[in-house]
# Entry
Amino acid sequence: MTATELLSLLTQAIFVAVFVLVLVRTIGQPTPAHLDMTVFFGIAAIIIVESRASRLLGLTPPEWVTDLLIVGLVALPYVLLRLLDHFTRVPTIATRASEAGLAALAVAVVVVPALPGPLLLAVVGYFGIVALYCGGMFVRTARRTQGVTRRRLEAVSLGTILIGVDLVGAGIAGFLPEPDRSIVSAAGQVLGLASAIAFYVGFAPPTVLRRAWQEPELRAFLARAAQLPRLGTTLEIVRELEHGAAGSTGSSARVGLWQSDEGVLRFWNDDGSTSDVRPGQHISGRAFELQRTMLSVDPARDNPAAAEQYRTGHVGAMLVAPITAGEKRLGTLVLTAERPPLFAVSDIELARLIADQAAVILESRALIDHAARVRAQEVATRMKEDFLSAAAHDLKTPLTTVVAQAEFLERRAARDPAAPADVSGLRRIVREAKRLSALVTDLLDAARLEQGRLVGEREPVDLGRLVAETARRLDALCEVDVRGAVVGSYDARRIEQLVQNLLENARKYSPSATPIRVAVWQEDGEARLTVEDEGIGIPAADLQRVFDRFARASNVDDRRFHGMGLGLYICRGIVEEHGGRIWAESAVGAGTTFYVALPLGDGRRLN
# Structure
């Protein structure tokens, strides 16, 4: 076997192999583009198989078979033009001219018994013109794309140009003398082999080759991924994700982020405007709702409502992958192409990979933003606490002087009724100054509580006696039930403050003539304290919140019940720093009961 024959056999084997590959793909995914690919390589395979079989068996095919094969050969440029139309828009005039030329040549081949020179030149010229036109258009289309798509189209354009030159050379070789004919024939075999390889690479690239093409862009994208969460804005991250996805897949890419507060997927357009899509709406919304990767080879058919938008944007195929981090839905990655053949089955896996990477990037950015907000909140809280502490300290001294002076004037006016003084006014000054002093004290205690320095030295304390004395001093209507002496290791001053705050809170929100019931006992190794009133009550939704700093129940009228919302917050701090628990049970309009459970510590029960 000569080198020329070996090249010819290898070229023909590749064309047949490509036919088998595209046929299998067409059976699995019978799209118009795959059907035209099957027809193109099927015609070439039939011509090759018939030629080889006739040569091996020494048979001469009937004339009608020869005519059909020649018509099939003439039809190859037209099928190639149809394939071009699946990758880019072919002008109608070019399609009609190709169809007219094919029809004329097919009729001439069938009618004329043998191919005369002029008819042969016409066939060669038709084949060359259409093939070179298709090759040029494939080159032009490749320049408008990127990544793997660009490499595929470059390979197809090379194969188209080479097969055109090969067929033109084969046609011209018949009119050349023998030495030149052999040279042209050998060159044609090389061109044929090169075109077969190029077609294989372009129309049926193996997965390993596609991944090799995708690897540089994908590797660059993944290398940038670690830095993406630290970019300035979310929009900048979205743009980088779109750029990386487009480079890796060779398509156009857009990222839509889920806006949970509005219930929409938001896409950012090139002009800075936004487009919103609701779950289940359009292809991207359906993919987000179903949490499934979706490939549409005809978006206008699958989503008629946006058909005009797809036509205007030259969207002939769409691949959508949801961006999800665990159970948290973040958005969608939308890849679009002008023609369906730009996407392959392996692109679905690649889209999922990029979407998963996008989820990691977006979730990392969300965590960074959350951490920044927490840090900012901590700084703001610390500054506020520093301010309140400083302000409270600065107010404490003049307030003490004001209270002392007001009490002195009140006592002197009470001793000397003839003195020119407004006793009721002085009493009001004393009362309000004491209230202001108590608020300042609460602010200082709240600041100490934040620093964990509210509770001081502990000592054995008879809780029942302390509660009874505090209740008698503050409220004559208070009913105290001390069930035995209960002793625990406590900071007596803070426990007294706890009882005082609970009693004052109960009296503030209760009618003036109603009693406050207090009980103290020991149970399950703990000291128990309850304070029960018949006041306005606390809504169920606020029962936990009332122990927060500056929090008040939603049914409290601030004009009627003055306060800053620190009393119960300080109570919780005192209890928790003693290792105990505090909670409340209430019904609106029926009163509230506060429960306190304190460990006994090193105290001793007195009998």
